[in-house]
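Predict the 3D structure for this chain.
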Amino acid sequence: MIHLATHGIADAVNALRSRVLLAPSAAGVGASSRDGWLEAWEVMRLDLRAEVVVLSACETGRGRVAEGEGLVGLTWALFASGIRHSVVTEWRVESQSTTTLMTGLYRRLRTGDAPAEALHSAILSLMKDPRYRHLYYWGPFVVAGSPRGTRVGGRVDTCAKALSYSGRGFNSNRGLYQPGAHRSGMGCDSGRL
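Done. Predicted structure below.
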């Protein structure tokens, strides 16, 4: 598991220049080109071996549609570097609600929930707080992931697909996502979502 709580910038012109802020190199240490930004093109050159990466920063799920590639940006670069699942954002996020949401996400991941289920539960919990019911506070968070047979938290997750909120519920590219559906015979593999 890798978690980066930082600042993110989506580059609308060159999606591989989308980036998250780390720490710049100290004067006189390392290459002079180490500006503290980790760009998508740099991420895809890394050999990351984590099941889940959380980019808790603004606009980390945005990118540019490239024919034959899909949405190119930080999420795409994470997959190219070997990541199975990522939790990213579609727009700017508010700090306090994000902290609460991330606490709920990790609580659920520790119990063995798949990333999509964990995020869904964390969002439902966050929405119980009247301050955070509005879509602005929880809507930007999405899970993108490997579609079949991915082990997360010690069990096989067959429904980890790129998810987005459509106003009715979490949707995968095959219909309404139902947490736990893969255990009831109504999962992604059954075609009955």
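Residues 54 and 87 are 5 Å apart (CA to CA).
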